Amino acid sequence: MGVSRSVEFFDTQFKRQVRSGEFALNPFERLALTYVHGAVLDLGCGLGNLALEAAHRGCNVTAIDASTTAIERVRRAAEEERLAVEALEADLTRFSIGNDYDTIVAIGLLMFFPQARALAMLRDIQANVHAGGHAIVNVLIEGTTYMDMFTSGEYYVFRREELVDSFAGWVIEVTQYDDFSAPGHTVKAFSTVIARKIH
């Protein structure tokens, strides 16, 4: 995630999930799979559940995360299953997309950066999707009260319609809002957009 507290939060979670073999796709990843095709970039891939399943379906995937635990798991699984997945550990506070892709996925990632960086990453994603390709983006939005995974001042909770509005000029295939209960009687509120680039 780029910010040390967030990386530490998820690395601890990933270690627990690896130990217990928890590799099920989350609801957002299941939704995304219908639209994932061709050359895929999975930014903030976590344990690679989506990346590996996309490769099973014939995609050529580049999976990137800041967590060493996550990337080691993705590499190991891809090697064992002989899947077309390149897994790279990267500091996402500085990462820029160097190639164009048919599908770029950023599920649960952009909110872990200050506003300027989050919006710059969103523009980078949009700029590097091939015409006819898809951007699949999921962020926390206003209404979120669970903050344990954030570093103070180093995150950005999007306005409710901000993600949808940012894809003006694209064909919006999916717009979805979800609220989930979180620890301590808090809430995680999400916006998900799947958009196809026209030109």
Would you kindly provide a written description of the structure presented here, covering whatever features stand out?
- Helix content is 32%, strand content 29%.
- It has helices spanning 4-20, 27-33, 49-56, 68-81, 115-127, 162-166; strands at residues 39-43, 60-65, 85-89, 101-107, 129-140, 171-182, 186-196.
- It has one domain (4-196): Rossmann fold, CATH 3.40.50.
- Helix 1 (4-20) packs across helix 4 (68-81) and helix 2 runs parallel beside helix 3 (49-56).
- Strands 3-2-1-4-5-7-6 form a 7-stranded mixed beta sheet.
- The protein is built from 6 helices and 7 strands; from the N terminus they run H-H-E-H-E-H-E-E-H-E-H-E-E.
- With 199 residues, the protein is of the alpha/beta class.
- Strand 2 (60-65), helix 4 (68-81) and strand 3 (85-89) form a beta-alpha-beta unit.
Main attributes?
29% strand; Rossmann fold; single chain; alpha/beta; 199 residues; globular; seven-stranded mixed beta sheet
Q: How many strand elements?
A: 7
CATH architecture grouping: 3-Layer(aba) Sandwich
Task: Give the helix tally.
Answer: 6
Q: Give the full name of the CATH homologous superfamily.
A: Vaccinia Virus protein VP39
Give the structure's gist in a few sentences.
The protein has 199 residues and is an alpha/beta fold. The chain contains six helices and seven strands.
